[in-house]
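Narrative of activities, Objective 1.

The group set out to show that a structural description can be obtained from nothing but a protein's sequence at a throughput compatible with the screening campaign. Below is one input-output pair from the validation batch, recorded exactly as produced.
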Amino acid sequence: SYDQYFKTISGGIGVIATHDQQGQGTIFTSSLGLIYSYHLKVNRKFSMLFGAKAAMTNKYLNWDKLTFGDMIDNKLGFISQTSERNPNRTVTNVDFSAGILGYSSSFFIGGAAHHLLEPDEAILNPGDSPLPMKITAHTGAIIPIGSSSTRHKRRRRRNPNTLPESSISPNILYQKQQDFQQLNLGVYVTKGPVVGGLWYRNEDAFIVLVGLQTTNFRFGYSYDVTISKLSNASAGSHELSMTFQFN
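Output recorded for this entry:
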């Protein structure tokens, strides 16, 4: 993915491409999307962002990778041909998403809607598998702590977007897609370039993270500690991320 701000249009333009293989090459999903965002400076302390995305998605099923019950011989195993019909179908859809965000140097609030047209993903029976719309809402704050609080107030008088040297940042993220709901509660603690954080994902996992951030560079490590019934089958997951930000 890549995105860039252009002053002439008061916003940003981006592109995002993904390619995913599942089941050892059974299902292939590719997507190419274009993103546009509009930046609105409401006043000296508060701004808003409006974003939209249009994507073309292609999904392909490799029928030769599948096995069916009627192919099994009780003694010899998989030796027969299946009577299941091969759909020879590649699913191609156009997908749209949109979002809005309001923010200042001390808080943010926003929301987004993905899969606005609920595109059909069915390979065997067209019309049977619409992708449900996903709704996301999120909010958070940045609270200066310690001696940083006084210095931050003085620096903000000169530049309202200045971030504090030390801060605590509570965050809330809510997602809903059809019958599935998820609530994430988290907090970040920043001391100079060092960032630590803890998230709780409802009835599923705790997420611990640590990282370094400067004006142009960010590096982070996080670990998901599974607490649901999947804990016996999953030892959690690790993630490393690295970001470079150019002028």
